Amino acid sequence: MEAQSKSVDTLSHPEALQTDVITLNMGPQHPSTHGALRLILKLDGERVVSAQPDIGYVHRGYEKMAEAMTYNQYIYLTDRLDYLSAIFNEWCYCLACEQLAGIEVPRRAEYLRVISGELCRLSSHLVWLGAMGMDVGAFTPLTYTFREREMILEIFDLLCGQRMTFNYCRIGGVARDLPAGFIERVRDFLKYFERMPDVYDRLLSDNAIFLARTRGIGTLTQELAHSHAVTGPNLRGSGVSKDLRKDDPYSVYAEFDFKVCTQSEGDALARYRVRVEEMRQSARIIKQALDQLPAGEITAKVSRVFRPPVGETYARVESSRGIQGFYLVSDGSAKPARCRIRVPSFAGLSVMPKLLHHVQVADVVAIMGSIDFIVPEIDR
Amino acid sequence: MSRPELQVEQLQAAFPEAKAEAGKAFGPELLLGSVEQLVAVCEQLKTAQEFGLEVLEDYTALDTGEQFILVLRLTSNQIITRKLTVKVSISRAGAKVPTLCPVYGSAEWYEREIFDMFGIRFSGHPDMRRILLPDEWKGHPLRKDYKDERMLKRPGA
Amino acid sequence: MNRFFKEPWDAVLSLVTGLMITLRQMFSKPCTIQYPEERLIWPDRTRGRLVMPRTEAGKHKCTACLMCQRNCPNGSIEIKVKTIAGSNKRELDDYLFHLDRCTFCGICVETCPFDALRMSHEHEIAVQDKARLKLHLQTETIRFNPAWRGALPAKDDTVEAQKPGQSSEERAD
Ligand code: SF4
Ligand code: SF4
């Protein structure tokens, strides 16, 4: 060995090391994949050569199941798509059914949907924030965000009897009215929560390690985001101000004053900033909704056996991860002929191979954490 | 600032071989005559200034029993309210569908899913495998003629 | 040179800020409870295991109308009906509840026209033998508990008095 006198700078010429490309299976059971997702990584040393997500581990055949269930029976199932923000699934599905049959939802019901939806967005972002912090090595934020999330889940328990699988929306409205003491409880929570985003900011956004792990990492360019139909906070982190709540206002969102938060950098830090800001805005919307809550009915008059006329529709809502869509085709019977679910995480994950190209292994976790996908939703 | 929605006449003029209609669900509807036009039409919808639909938000299929219908939802991130549904019918027996991957990146996974669920093959697709179901799965579940004896039977149903 | 000193200094500073926040938590009330000894009080609407409570007279209210069986999304309920000898009146024979399939959606309670079902607050339902998850609800003699209000039809529910948020003036006149 000593015979080789010439030395090569292997830092600037890594190929001189002649390392083999190794294949690494990340998942399906891996703490940072946020669910049963397998990522097949090809590594050259510390560098990712290619990354292929392998999905379908929790495929349950939602679109097939819909064909065997009545419209009403299917509502509770949609909770289990994106279980961290279940209301949006229900809401979107009910919206599609209402569009099919031309049902007008009472205003109070719309408000209740907005309140529960924004609470859901808060709790989902809180989980994401904790998990994201943990992915890059900060454990403390997780314990704080889960404490706050617990309060939201308790509010949901009060409202609809379950913490995560609510089964709250109904075709034409919501299942039940507010329980006694609910408004007080939410107001108390909001008061408590008001200063929390600043605490997270101080914990994470000013932390040198967190900044080093996220700034300039996993940059999602606008072209890539357009081409892969990325939506939601990930898109807004790339500088596109697109939020259905503002741009295509469904429900009663037009009546609230809130900002669409964007960041132009497109890296993991930008996505983080967008989500923290979104939490503040969600809290604002809830506060306004509680102030303006109208009295009245909570469901429209819908017959028990829901039979929409022949036709088709495509309803979308802005869920906490992006645009959630339901495409329903009715043949006039009590069961949908086709139910297609457009989920935001599917697009968010399909961009992964491009985002993970030529990054360091340690950044894979940070990038995946910042994209915030959720596997049961992708697999359906 | 926001430019107006897509107009049916405008679409009809740009694509004389297709049929443009006022759709109810998601913008106007463009019904293509044959699946061969699909790539060229999408290319034009994406790049031409007057359309600028650079996002393929959703791409799925529909089994009517006699034929399959491919349903595309196009939208834009620049002119956000702009949306368009493109539909094209194909025969149930092994029609050749050209892939949209070169035009839209999201098409890659959507097409894999359509193949998985309906058995529609896309020619020119870089990675035509199943995506959700295991590779050794038999049949394509969302076809109307799919049967599976392991499906749960409800009592009294 | 500036960078050489400034970056570590910033890092240490941000660390101290973080530690201050954590330190403050040490003096706040714990937000956890010691589970088996302490328990949370469940809100009325909590949806626990399905039960068929008995009235004061010790009877259940089910008339075997099969509404719940038809509406349950995943076939957790199987009902056997018998006809009473000498008349063509129907009566409940067996109410088999597959707890292993139930998703606690509450549709059965919501659709029962005779108020025969309730979702109790029982939630510690793990067993070691799957066979014990097949329950025959008509054999249980669980007393009715008015606090079980999970998934009740909207009309029977206790709600907050509806008052529009900002319109205290409106209410006055
Ligand atoms: S429990 Fe209620 S819905 Fe079910 S069979 Fe008895 S009466 Fe009918
Ligand atoms: S709670 Fe839902 S799943 Fe369970 S028995 Fe009732 S209807 Fe069926």
Please, could you describe this protein's structure?
- The complex is a heterotrimer of chains A (380), B (157) and C (173).
- Chain A has 380 residues and is of the alpha+beta class.
- Chain A is built from 16 helices and eight strands.
- Helices cover 46% and strands 13% of the residues of chain A.
- In chain A, strand 4 and strand 5 form a beta hairpin.
- With 157 residues, chain B is an alpha/beta fold.
- Chain B has a domain at 8-94: Beta Polymerase, domain 2 (2-Layer Sandwich).
- Chain B is 18% helix and 24% strand.
- Chain B has helices at residues 8-14, 38-47, 107-118, and strands at 19-21, 29-32, 55-63, 67-75, 83-91, 97-98, 122-123.
- In chain C, the strands form two sheets. Chain C has a three-stranded antiparallel β-sheet, with no helix packed on it. In chain C, strands 1-4 form a two-stranded antiparallel sheet.
- The longest helix of chain C is centred in the first third of the chain and has 25 residues, at 2-26.
- Classes of the chains: A alpha+beta (380), B alpha/beta (157), C alpha+beta (173).
- Chains in contact: A-B, A-C, B-C.
- At the A-B interface, helix 9, strand 6, strand 7, strand 8 and helix 13 of A face strand 3 and helix 3 of B.
- The structure holds iron/sulfur cluster (SF4) (2 copies).
- One iron/sulfur cluster (SF4) is lined by residues 50, 72-74, 76-77, 102-108 of chain C.
- One iron/sulfur cluster (SF4) is lined by residues 62-68, 79, 112, 114, 116-117 of chain C.
